[in-house]
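Two proteins, back to back. First:
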Amino acid sequence: MRWEDFRQSDNIEDRRGDGPMMAGGGSSGQLGLGAMIVLGLLGYAFGIDPRVLIGGAEMVSQMSHRSQQQVSAPSRPMGAPKDQVGRFVAAILAENEDVWKDVLPAQTGVQFRPAPVVLFNGATRSACGAARAAMGPFYCPLDRKIYLDTSFFRDMKNKFGGGGDFAYAYVISHEMGHHIQDLLGILPKAQAAQRAAGGARANAISVRIELQADCFAGVWAANANEKWQVIEQGDVEKAIATAQAIGDDRLQKSAQGYAVPDSFTHGSSAQRVQWLERGLKSGKVADCNTFSQAN
């Protein structure tokens, strides 16, 4: 993937040099769904990276269960980092910003507002509670920031068998997809529906949220490639392989030998690939309606 010659976003808050800053009373129990805790424990038991089992965007479906009184960490100066990983994140964020500031108003009539990325090591605080490396990347709708421990990229490659710049860009763009959902008013409505539903139905809504974020990541990639020809040979295949590998069915089968569809919160491997490819092929927000009964 081409990224080195593109601008870098200044909407980066780099906390990687800070010590751990946990939200008051933060614990794994605050993460909400018991399924997420079980998946984390299974990850440790079976030697699978727990952040992959939990999933980066799992936080999104849990925000309605958190107290909005939690205090986030003090902000750090914003700006593009100087190290290689930080520069990569800043470049992908800039490409997302430059695509969505045009695509979102043109296709939906909604103005785009940037979502800063907070880089951290190990743990930090967000307006949504404690942020830990094992949770993977996530979007917090309470402060409209994306949280990313950059060791996630290394673990994707070394422990998970994924990797590649476009696969990493897909992860960042998936989280930006949740921000797009927030700007469109989809995310708060979906969270309200989850609160009302509970149980397996709430999980099914979470799957729709996550699959739409996958599709929005595809929409970004399609439009970025049209504007700048950023996608190189093999990039799409790597992103698809990553989407396949993080399907709930594959993760559960790896951990326990079987899958429990009612507990899925991100979608099966086939679903994740389907919606990523749909966004890649169409480049249109309207084609990412995962909540339609027809899908």
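And the second protein:
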Amino acid sequence: MKPTVAEAYAACLDITRAEARNFYYGIRLLPPPKRNALSALYALARRIDDIGDGDLPLEDKRNALAGVRKDLGRLDDLDEPVYVAVADAARRYPVPLGAFEELVAGVETDLCDVRIADFDELVVYCRRVAGSVGRLCLSIFGPSTGGTDFETLALYADQLGIALQQTNILRDIREDFTNGRIYLPSDELEHFGARVALDEHGALDDPQGRLAGYIRYAAGRAQDWYSLGWRLLPYLDRRSGASCRAMSGIYHHLLRRIGANPVLVYDQRLSLSAGEKAQVALASLAGRRKSVPS
């Protein structure tokens, strides 16, 4: 039986609360209608990501992603809670459903071993898997002031998503490598004389510090992308701006720590504590980007 819209949104909120370890701190700052809608979009994006990262055989993953593409074209005919909620959100807000197809294309890149030739190729990948999410978020946030066309705001949202994905990549170098993926551009690694490899203890092997030097460089560049993306903030209403600041602020604090001390990611998956994330969220609600101890 098809769930009610309220039941569908409740299911998406449960998924978001359980799975969005960083984004939930920002999503919960939104008023209920926007919180519901953004949770629905997150739940579908999470499903797409989980297909790529799951344990299904390769061909089954490809078929599942093709199924998502098909479902996006018939949302009103589906009775699965996530799709019911996304369909309702798309009726209430200008959701760019094509952004989900971009996300699917990005996840398809992850299905096999990944090697990135240069930064231009990396930007294309980041735009697909994270810039798309930034644009989806913008469709729910909505601009509160005039003076800048929506296409420009979408560019800012896209750039902020790219900044977050660069942070993810630097945080997850070791984990990605164990899964056959190296997102650090090959030409840049060569320029720094760096390589991605593990030592006998399973940590990133960097005896001469060349990988650390590269990570500091890449973190500085990612900072520039945050600066570009944060141009969006003045155009959002208070609650939407707080949500955006909180979501991006948590990742930005991770980036600062990685840039200051790259070896933090050599043998662990770096994260902020729940208390630190709460500090960022509260400061975001107050209208500023909170600094937590590095």
